[in-house]
Structures are given as C-alpha cells and as structure tokens.
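Q: I have 398 residues here and want to know how they pack in 3D. Can you give me a structure?
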Amino acid sequence: MVIVVGSGAGGATVTKELAAQGITVTLLEKGPAIEERDAFKHYANVDAEVQIMRTICLGGTTIVSAGNGVRCLEEELRQVGIDLREEFEEAEKELGVGVLPDSLFGEGTRRIMEAATNLGLDVKKMPKFIDPTKCKSNGRCSFGCPEAAKWSALNFVKMAERLGATIIPNMQVDEVIVKNGEVNGVRCGDRIFCDDTVVLSGGALETPRLLKRAGLPTSSSSLFVDTFTTIGGVLEGIGFNKEVTMNAVIRFDDFLLSPHFSRRLEACMERKGIRASPEDILGIMVKIKDEEVGVIDEQVEKGVTNHDAGLLSEGASLAGSILEEAGVKPSTFVSTPLRGAHPGGTAKIGVAVDRNLETGVSGLYVMDASVLPAAPGAPPLLTIVALAKYAASRIMMR
C-alpha cells in the first residue's frame, strides 16, 4: 500500500504507474476536483518580488500548462546517477508529444518565426502534448482547456482511479508521521492515513515544509522558478490572443524565447497610455534559468539577482528585435511583471533524497519538481513525468 500526497505531474504519474501494477494506492489532494475548463478559478499564486504561479486542484498546475513537451535536465540527472532515456521515450509516447500541424499555427506565431529566421536565429516548432484533432486554437491553454485537447495530470488521475486507486480531493496533509526511523503515514487535520510507503508530491513550495516538520533536511533556500516576462506590442488585427501559445521556441544556453500572449500586456499598455484590444497584441516570452536564490519558510522569498537581470535584459532585447522585424511598432513595447511558473530545487537529489528519490526516513519518497538538481530554464513537465516513472519503478522494488 502507498499514500501519494499531491496530484500534479509527479504524484499523478506515480499513482497511475503503481496502480497499473496492482498496488493499492491512496492519492490525497489539497485542492478540489474540478472541470478542466474551470482551472483558471483555482490559481493560488504566491506573491514575492517574482510572483510564483500555481493552481491548487486535482491535476495541479499541469491543467494550466502550455502543453510543452521538451526534454530538459537530462545531463544534470545523469550526473547524479539517473538515466531517463527509456522513461523519456515512454512518456513521450504516452503523452503523444509531437509538433502541431501547420493548420494550428496562427499568423502571429508565423510572423514571429519568420522574423526570427530573418534575423539569423534558430527557431523551431515547440513539441506539444496536445491532440490536434481536438484543439480549437482558442488561446485558453493557461486557463484550462475547454476541449480537453491537452494532456494534464487529470488524465493519469482518472486512469489510476479506473485501475483501483482511491482519489481523495480536498484533503490537506499537515504532517508526515514517522516512527523509529520509518514512515507510518500522514495526518490531515484530525484524520490519520496509515501506510509504510508515502510519496510527497505536493510541489516545490509545500513538500519542503512537510519535510522540515518531520525534521528532515531540505534545500529550501535553493528555490528556482524559471523567471519570465512577456514583451509585447501593437500589431493591429493580428488575432494572436486566440492562437496556441508557445507554439515555437528559440533556445539559448541560459534562456529561451517563445511566442506568448499575456492578458497583462493589455493592462501594461493602458498604464502607458496605449489603447489596444487583445486582438491587436503580439508578444514573446523571455524565460531564463534563474539563479537558485530564494527561500521557503513560513513566507516565500524570491527575487532577481544581477545575473538574472542580465539574462532578462539580453532576452528582452532579442525579443524586441524580433517583434520589430515582425511589424510591431517599438513605441508600443511593454513588458509584464516578473513571474515564475516552474518552482523547484527545494528538496534536491543528493540533499533531501537519494537517487532512488527516498529520504533518510525509510519508505518516505519525494517526487515533484522539488527534487530537480538545477533550474531547467524550459518547461520541465515531461522531465517530471519521466522521473516519476523512474521513481515508481524504485518504489516497486522495495
């Protein structure tokens, strides 16, 4: 029997993998069960200098992801003794990762891709786990897909339930119960769930808090979030707000650029005295590998180092050049406040867990972005799914 805490990419994958092998699993989720199209109602962002984005609901933040299926941190994981080649291949097949057909590339994305190519940049189509036969290209990826065209952890949660797993939403875990150096279960308010195997998958902000309460080591002062901003400007009638977001990517060593519409661009323009409707805005995201400078305690602290500021400035300059080449007037350029969508690194492999993802307490595992060894600077969801498959195989070997 196994208890899994949290239903995001890591928790849902572990639950499904274990249930498929006939293991009795109970999945506890802090948030409610929801319809995918309502995910935007369950954002629970954390305010800091860099705002950290997340949702709290069954399926976690995967429901509001952009559906990007890129491999990242392969070499960094190999350096700590974890080779995920087989797991990546399995995950890519299971999630249906591939580039979308040309019919799902809108005019705005095509303009950005052509402009980047004209400037000598290497632009590629972004691998996606989106079913092109279901996608309506309505620009709602980050709000919860109303067509369920995008893979999310809910897919695995539902599969696990069909395989016999027990799914309990609205159940916040307050404490890991440890006796004589072994895990004994978890406490949720006045309820106790007993088991000799527990997997913490509550996310990089919640998992280290549970570890600390159990007296276990963390790396909670090494928080990274892949800090990003979106640079945008006016290109009348482009209709970019209805396109599949982040459908292309330009990768550099420490940051990436990707076509991205943000509703915050319109508000930024209003403050600058620029009138523009969402249909008239073209934008590019600048996402960096931020330095691991942040703290999770009772409060979350996450700021911008000089190194981070330099990368953001370099990326913004390139994004501006691409937008101008695409026909956007530089006088209309604005940038959104800094945010981070990929918190991780707060219970690292080699610090909080070993290469089997097990803590110093026998039977207590961690499987979420908190174990990642470095900032990916790219969407880590596929890597988390692959790593969770690896973790499930180690748990089954106990």
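Q: Anything worth noting?
A: Residues 356 and 394 are 6 Å apart (CA to CA). The chain has nine helices and 18 strands.
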